[in-house]
Amino acid sequence: MKILDTIGYAIIVVSFIISCPAAHANSVKNKTYTVWVSSSFDDSPFPPFQDCFQFTKDQLCIAGCSGECGRLSEVPSLGVWEARVSCGGLDLRFKGTSLTEPATSVIAATGAGVAEGTNFAVEGIKDTCSLAASRSAGSRYKR
User: Fold this and answer.
1) Are 79 and 97 within 8 A, CB to CB?
2) Alpha-carbon distance 50 to 136, whole Å?
3) Which end of the chain has the least Cβ crowding within 10 Å, N or C?
4) What is the rounded CA–CA span in Å between residue 30 and residue 16?
């Protein structure tokens, strides 16, 4: 009986996979995201601040780092990416995932400020935020 249940579940899963539309590319390249960033050094419960991430073909530019850009690499078929942005010497490093659906694209990432030993959590949604309009006086990534 247990074997029949397992076979039944397998048939359902396979039929679901076959009936789903083709997977969408999960690339972040040439997209802009409004993101919310929580830092390890803020007071609990770590309220997030808003920022703008702009991905080009091979760079991530961050409004909160005065628009500074750094290298980007990704594996779109797996929806994973990583980026490194100097951000005024903070040496920010992000490892993230992306998901593209018909309605929108979203990202999530963990980040580290290597120079200060800080950590960040990033969540974002594809948007039309502007690097110039989102720049702030001081970097929120600095302790």
Assistant:
1) yes
2) 10
3) N
4) 32
